[in-house]
Amino acid sequence: MTTLQEKIQLATTFLQNKGVKDVEFGLILGSGLGELGDEVEDAIAIPYAEIPHFPVSTVEGHAGQLVYGKLSGRPVLAMQGRFHYYEGYSLEDVTFPVRVMKAIGCHSVIVTNAAGGVNEAFTPGDLMLITDQINYTGVNPLIGPNDAAMGPRFADMSHAYDLDYLTTAREVAVSLNLALKEGVYMGFSGPTYETPAEIKMVRLVGGDAVGMSTVPEVIVANHAGLKVLGISCITNLAAGMQANLNHAEVVETTQRVKETFKTYLKETIKAL
Ligand code: HPA
After folding, report:
1. Any catalytic annotation for residue 236?
2. Is 105 contained in some domain?
3. 125, part of any domain
4. Of 181, 188, 235, 270, whose CB has the highest number of CB atoms within 10 Å?
5. What are phi and psi of 76, to 5 degrees?
6. Which of 245, 247, 257 to mutate to test the pocket of ligand 1 (most atoms within 8 A of CB)?
7. d(CA 152, CA 142)
8. Is residue 46 part of a domain?
9. For the whole model, what pTM was predicted?
10. What is the 148 CA–ligand 1 centroid distance (Å)?
11. What are the φ/ψ torsions at residue 225 (nearest 5 degrees)?
């Protein structure tokens, strides 16, 4: 049987043979936010299906490829489309790209997502800097034997989102006159949206936004010693705060704010 280490190595070698090298940032682009990958210069696009041991994404609005090249002059490896636990992937699959980002030499990952706003001060279309997260998925990608070569048994999550990156991200927002929100991202497994009662709970326990991704990738990034910056696009108000929820609205909102999102991400990458 191929071990996880061997799978990571096979995928990494494959990407290196495609010309991927000296990458600084791994980028995970969430639902409707994949267009940032189209702005990568001198781009090499590699479909997930070609990469050994890479899962293939199924959700609408996700292209399913890695894009390597420069964004704001910095070498990035961007995921257009990510893997969700609710799709039926194991958490090892969901977080496999993060392991590959580490193996290929990234020092940081930038995670983005579409999220429901729980904080009453949020409006659909807001961008939210993720200051911390609550893992409410009921699972953890690090459950199982720990390979000490990949990280510690008990990973420290005290600064899951890098403090210096938070400072820089705030400064960039000010310089762009962007009313950046910030808050705690609470991760659910999905695929159902939350109930109004669950959203009341989220607010009581300190969550500002909810979503179905990000939490496993950020846990593995911390385990691997990668620095993390996270940005949510608040696509809707969470259950009970508006009439109904649907995926079409999520996509519509990301489309509406995509130019702001792209500009903000590019300027932030430049400044990190
Ligand atoms: N809940 C969970 N995930 C989401 C939401 C939501 O309201 N909006 C976008 N992704």
Report:
1. yes
2. yes
3. yes
4. 235
5. -130, 155
6. 245
7. 10
8. yes
9. 0.96
10. 35
11. 80, 25
With the most atoms of ligand 1 within 8 angstroms of its CB, the residue from 84, 119, 236, 244 to mutate is 236
Q: Are 267 and 169 in contact (CB under 8 A)?
A: no
Binding site annotation covers 62? yes
CATH code assigned at 69: 3.40.50.1580
The whole-number mean pLDDT for each consecutive block of 10 residues of the chain, a chain of 272 residues, reads 92 98 96 89 95 78 82 96 93 97 98 97 98 98 96 97 98 98 97 98 98 98 98 96 88 93 96 97
List of residues 6+ apart from 105 with CB closer than 8 A: 21, 22, 23
175 is in an annotated binding site: no
> 91 lies in a domain?
yes
With tokens 């999520």, the residue in question is 250
pLDDT (0 to 100) of residue 60: 53
The alpha carbon torsion through 215, 219, 224, 230 (nearest 10 deg) reads: 40
Distance CA 264, CA 260 (A): 6
Q: At what angle do helices 4-17 and 91-103 cross, to 10 degrees?
A: 50
- Count of domains observed in the chain: 1
Range of 53's domain?
21-271
Annotated active-site residue in 39, 87, 92, 249:
87
Side chain identity at 23, as an amino acid letter? Answer: V
Q: Which ipTM was obtained for this model?
A: 0.99
